[in-house]
Amino acid sequence: MNKGNILIVEDDTATLELLQAYLEKEHYQIVIAKNGKRALEKFRKYDLDLILLDIVLPDMDGLHICRNIRWQSNIPIIFLSGRREMNDIVTGLDVGGDDYITKPFDPDILVARVNANLRRHRYLENSQPDKQPHQPVESLTKREVETLALINRGLTNKDIANRLFLSEGTVKGYNNNIFQKLAVKNRTEAVNLARELGLL
Q: Where exactly does CATH 3.40.50.2300 map onto the chain?
């Protein structure tokens, strides 16, 4: 009996094998990715029920992956990380994670939390069948999209202000709005995420 399909995104082989063994014992089908690029490819390819997501990966961090997936789906995402500080946990939940488990972890507790997250998600899905997947990131305004496009072209705030006939302070305000809505920290992260999401 297949209880569900779980994508494990983890680059440490020992941790990956441990997770796979315990979850397969619970009758879950496992899909594996060892980096962010493969994780996004397999997310699009497979019919998944839950994602276990490490934060520190070779090519991109798990927070970035989570933000990307949240634009497309409300699939349960559980972060699995050695980062144990309170602000790390809060950040993981703020960008769209449903749960956050710190390493080292007890495999039995992890399985129980996987079961609980799936049970809650399926209950909500069944109780609201007509609900569309939520968009956790607010939509950008037309002016913010214009600003982002000019950032993508490498223009400074002053250049953007001149191009759009705005004050430099107003452009900085648009920058802050963009960073907040996309849940990123700087111009580079904003442009990279916008490209992946097809906004640019």
A: 4-127
Cα 149 versus chain centre, distance: 23
Looking at the chain, which residues constitute the CATH 1.10.10.10 domain(s)? 142-196
Q: Which CATH class is domain 142-196?
A: mainly alpha
Token reading at 1: 């009996």
CA-to-CA dists, residue 2 to 35, 128, 146, 157, 181, angstroms: 25, 24, 47, 53, 37
Provide the pairing of β-strand 50-54 with 77-81.
parallel
Please state whether beta strands 77-81 and 99-102 pair in parallel, antiparallel, or not at all (unpaired): parallel
CA pair distance 40, 188, nearest whole angstrom = 20
Q: Is the pLDDT reported for residue 131 higher than 70? A: no
Residues 6+ apart with CB under 8 A from 157: 168, 171, 172, 175
- Domain 4-127 - what CATH class? alpha beta
The pLDDT tens digits of the residues spanning 25-81 come to: 999 999 999 999 999 999 999 999 999 999 999 998 899 899 889 878 889 999 999
The Cα 101–Cα 95 span in angstroms is 15
Q: What is the pTM for the complete model shown?
A: 0.67
